[in-house]
Every structure is written in C-alpha cells, then in structure tokens.
Amino acid sequence: MNTKIFKYIIPTLSLAFMMNFTSCIGDLDVSPIDPNLDVVFNQDANFAKIYAGLAITGNQGPAGQPDIADTDEGASGLMRMMFNINELTTDEAICAWTGDTDVFPLNSTKFTPSNGLVLNMFNRLYIQIAQCNNFLLQTSGLSDEKTALQRAEVRFIRALDYYYLIDLYGNVPFVDEITGIGAYVPERITRPDLFAYVEKELKEIEPILKAPRSNEYGRADQAAVWMVLSRLYLNAEVYTGTARWADAATYAKKVMTAGYTLEPVYGDMFRADNNKSQEMIMPICFDGVYARSWSGMFFVCSFISGDMDLEANFGTKEGWGGNRARMALVKKFANDGNLANVKDQRAMFWTKDRTLAIEKPSEFTQGYTVAKFKNLTKDGQIGSDPNKQFPDMDFPLFRLAEANLTFAEATLRAGGSKTEALKAINDLRKRAKATEIGESDLTLNFILDEKSREFYFEAQRRVDLIRFNKYTSDYIWDWKGGVAEGTSLPAHLKLLPIPISQLTANTKLIQNTGY
Asked: Fewer beta carbons below 10 Å: N end or C end of the chain?
C-alpha cells in the first residue's frame, strides 16, 4: 500500500487531540469534540487520524492507548466488526471461537443489547463522528484550498459512518460540529431523516472533492461519493420505505464510466500489493510496518490455520483458525459442493482435510477454508513486516465490481435495459473465467447469488439478504438460527439493538422493536 499518510501520522499523533472514548455518547462533555479540552489541535495529524481510524484501533499501533477503553483493542477495528456482523449472521461465514462470548452467538444471529460487539461498533462509529466534528469545528474559519478539500473528505467519512448507523441501528443519536458542544445529550434522529442528511451531505461535497482517480491513494474522491450514494439508494426501500432503484443505477453507472477497470485476475484484488489495482475505488489502508492492526491481520489470519503451509501460501506465519465457509456459500459455486470441476476462479477454497458439512461450529476443519486473502504480492513476495505477521493487503472498501452488480440489480428492478444489466454481470463472469449467462438467466435471485460469489467475506452479505427479504425469512442455510438444518428468524433481527449503556446514558433514545 501507499504508506504516506501513515508515515506521517505515527510520529505526530501524540500531539493530536485523541483521547479514549469510554462509550458514552449520551454525555458529549467527555468526547473529543469538547473545545475546552486541554489538547493541541494539529490539522494534518488530526486529518490523518480520521483516515487511519478506519484501519487502526488506537494511538500506538496494534496495542496501547486504544480508542475504545475497557475492551479487546484488537477486536474493535471497524471492518473486523463489520465482518462479524455482516458475515457470521448470514449464509456465508461461521466462526469456531466458542470462547468469544460476543462473537460466537452471531453464528446464530443472536443479538442482545448487552453484547459487547454491538456496543463497540456503536462506539467506533461515534468515535469517528466525534473526530470528524472536532476537525470541522477547529477548521471552520479557514478557506484555503487545502483545508476546503480536507473538510470535504472529513464530511465524507462522517457521512459514511452515519450510513453504517442507518443500516445497523436505524434511529440513533445525531451530532455534528454545531451541536453537542460541552454537556449535551444528543437528540434522536429517525432513519428516514438521517438518510436525507447523508444524501444531502454527499451531494454537497461531491463538487468539492477531486475527480475520480485523481486524489492520493486511500483518500476519498467523487467516485467514493457515488459508491456510497449507490448503496444508499439501493437500500432506500429498507431505510425509508420508498424505493430509489433508478437513482442507484444512475450513480453506479457514474462509477462504471469513471475510468476504473476490473483487475484482470480476481484474486489479485486481495493481495499485499492490491494498492496497484485499477479496480480499487477506495481502500482501508493497512501496512505491515506503518499501519499495524490486529484487525488488519484478521482478514488474512482468522480464515486460515497452521496446517496450510502459511508462509508459502498466505505470506504470514499466523493462522488463527476462526472463520470459514458455510455449506450454503460453497453451493453457490457447486450445488453438490464438489469444486473439482468448477471453472469460476472466484471459488477460492481450501478443501484439503476439510469437510463440506459442519456438524460442530466449534471445529475449524468442518467447513471449507476461504483462501481469498493473502499477504503475498502478485509475484509471490511476502509483505513488508519483517516478522511476517501484519499484512500489507488493503481492504477493498469500494471496488468497481460492486458498481457493476448494483447497476445490474437496480436496472432490473427499475425496468431498465436488460442488455446493459446483462453486460455488467457478464463482465464479472468473464474476468472469473465463468460461463457467461443469457438474458433468460438474468433474474434478481441470480444477481443475489452472483453478489455472494463476487463479494463473499467482504462484509456485505447481511445488507443484501435484508434487501431481498431473505435474512430472517424462510430462506434457510446451515446453522441459521443455531439449528444445524437452519430455521427462519424473527423479523426484528434485521436491526441491531441499541446498546443498553446508551439507553441508560441518553433517555431520548428508544430501543429497537423486539429487544
């Protein structure tokens, strides 16, 4: 990855305002946006921290001065928590770690208001929002070109955080750089109103941000805005009750015509030098030397185990033996689970000494291993960490293939050109060396399965299943609801509960229905 932003931030971060956020969004007098705090604001360091906060979990590398106090720092990274919430509760992933009492229940889609992961995700998003608010407050009187661009990018990160809150929690506290200074209990904003706020913010900053592919690697540009808007509109019916299919197709098309190209080899999108990919729209940047995070290791090491010749095959000496594929995911590529004759190059599974069926979720060797993510470059070189632990692989938060699939689905739902939608799908299948399909094969259910084949283990599946009304319904997969053969779930599980500590701290909040 391009390590410029992290080389800058590590030695300067101690000068910045960052302080531990102790899970109390109900009283912002203890949050970093309080201007009375006796701290030093360093514009460039604080700007870098906002981006770095998408990847790292504290101010001293993988451990020390964590952003979220009183928790396992290594488990509190944004995308690690997103994976647990959006993959373990679906037909794609299952975790073997019975000792993790916050994570293991998610295999059965069991959320509770006291679950530590539910709380830490809430806190992570509001930490980032507080940091964004502080930056905007501190730079409010500056109008130079550099600051204007930084402020627009910070507003993008805040809008992204609020998008995740819309999706995960629904009706939540709202704070910006104007509200919430000093002792302040935030107002509750409804899901539709927060949707409108995020939409407005993104459209306001769009002309200020740099054009696609013209900003420094790892920073937001107009294409990143279009990606979030396309996600927002694709799920608008879930979030607001009103479908916005045409808008989703419009913004996905803008990305598709912005100069990005699909990585020729699918697996190269998930390697240690994926920063070179022309498919990458916006990554979460990790680096084996300058941006170390246990959460960064998670996307390589939690999917593999010590019986797999780790250094040669994955560029690391650590295999955590945690997450692997459910049978339902493997069957997206082969109905009988036999991958021997599957031509789709996206079927990146390790089957040696593994079983297809899972009789015990606690047994890592039950279930095929996902071999998609590697700390190896295209030419087979191990990443930069001399200890062969922390990966260089950047997490592809937004990549071109998502725009293709969003365009195809939204176009089909809106009654648009089936020919164009078909091409968007077949471009991905050609890249994967999979058989191209015809118009008669192009159905919404096919697109949902294709999204799984393209994006499995990339922390998106829950959102797709909810949009298709299959997350809690009679669409069954192995171990859904904690039953080996699967069972349907109560509809309220489409939203996470508001953490119990937040309800205590902020009496303006209301618990989500069913909890």
From this structure: C
